[in-house]
Amino acid sequence: MNCAQKEAIVTAPLPSSIEIVEVGPRDGLQNESTLLPTATKVELIERAIAAGARRIEAVSFVHPRLVPQMADAEAVMAAAPRRDDVSYSGLVLNRRGFDRALGTGLTEVNVVVVATDEFSERNQGVTTEEGLRTWEDIATRAHAAGVRAVATIAVAFGCPFEGPVSSDHVVELARRIAEAGPFELALADTIGAGVPTQVGELIGRIREKTGARLRCHFHNTRNTGYANAFAAAAAGVSTLDASVGGIGGCPFAPDATGNIATEDLEHLMAGMGVRTGLDLEELSRTGTWIGERLGKEVPALLGRAGPFPRQ
C-alpha cells in the first residue's frame, strides 16, 4: 500500500450511520470461564435490545464438550424475546449445527471458514478447503430454508499458528465464498493482529473482487481494534461486530482477549457523527452488569470513565 492509499484511509468520509451487531451473548460468553445460567444469557439479550441492538448473535451450535458455555443454545433461543425488528444469528460449523439452528427459528446463520489449515483443524477439525465445501453446502440449505447465510473468514489478518496470512489468499477465499451468495461476508481479526492500513487494503480488494456486502469483526488483543473499526468504516463497511463489555475471545486461540466493546465503539462512532441507533448509557450499564455476573472487571472503559461530555 503506497502513501496515497494510506492517506485515503485517514481522510475518507465516514458514513452517516453504521450497523453494529451485538455478539456478546455468543462470542462474548464463549471464552469466559464462568458458566452463566440460561436466564442470565436471556437477560443479556434483553438488555442488548433495550440498548438499541437489532441484530444479535445470540448462540452457537457446537459440541458442548468443546464449548460448554454454549451448551444451552436451544433453551436460550426458546426464551429469547421475539420481535419483528430484532434478528438473531447463530454460529454453525457443520450440517448438524445448521440443522439444530434451523429448529430454533433463527433469522440467520454464521458459517466460519478459517483462512489457515492449522487453525481450521484445531477450531473445526477440517482443512480450509473442507471448510469451504461446508460453507457451500450450508449456504445452499439456508437459501432453500429462507434463512440468511453469513460467511466469516476467521484469522483473516493473522494466525496464531501460521503467522501472517497473505492478503492474496484471503481475497481468493472471499471470491470463492461469494460464489455461494452470502447475505454478508465478514472479515474476522480473530487474534487482534491487524492494523488499519491492512484493513483498508483488504476491504478494498475484496469489494472490488466480489461486490459482496462486507462486515468486520475485530478483537482488541493488541489494542488496535478500535483503530481498525474506524478504518473499516472509512473504507465503506456497513456493519461492525462488537461485544458489550468487551468480553470474549476465541477458545481455540492462545492468549485470546476480548472483542471490541460495544459501548466504547458507540462512543467512538457517536463522537464522529456516525449514527448506530444504540444507547450509550444503557450499553455501559449492561457492560458493568455482565462483568458482575462473570465476577470480573470487563475490558470496556466506558463503564469506568463514563461518557463525555457528561449529561
Describe the protein.
This protein has 311 residues and is α/β, with parallel strands linked by helices. It has one domain (16-305): TIM Barrel (Alpha-Beta Barrel), CATH 3.20.20.70. It is built from 13 helices and 8 strands. An 8-stranded parallel beta sheet has the order 1-8-7-6-5-4-3-2. Strand 3, helix 5 and strand 4 form a beta-alpha-beta unit. Helix 3 (38-50) crosses helix 4 (73-79), helix 8 runs parallel beside helix 9 and helix 11 runs antiparallel to helix 12 (280-294). The chain is globular and about 50 Å long. The termini are far apart. The mean pLDDT is 94.
Oligomer category? single chain
Q: What level of helicity do the residues show?
A: 40-55%
What fraction of the residues are assigned to beta strands by DSSP?
5-15%
In CATH terms, the superfamily is Aldolase class I
H/E series, N to C?
A: HEHHEHEHEHHEHEHEHEHHH
| Overall CATH architecture | Alpha-Beta Barrel
In terms of structural class, how would the helical and strand content be classed? Answer: alpha/beta
- Give the overall silhouette: globular
The number of helical segments is 13
- Low-pLDDT segments, ≥5 res: none
CATH fold type: TIM Barrel
Rg (C-alpha, Å): 18 Å
Number of domains: 1
Q: Report the average pLDDT across residues.
A: 94
Number of strands: 8
Distance between the termini: 42 Å
Summary?
This protein has 311 residues and is an alpha/beta fold. The protein is 43% helix and 15% strand.
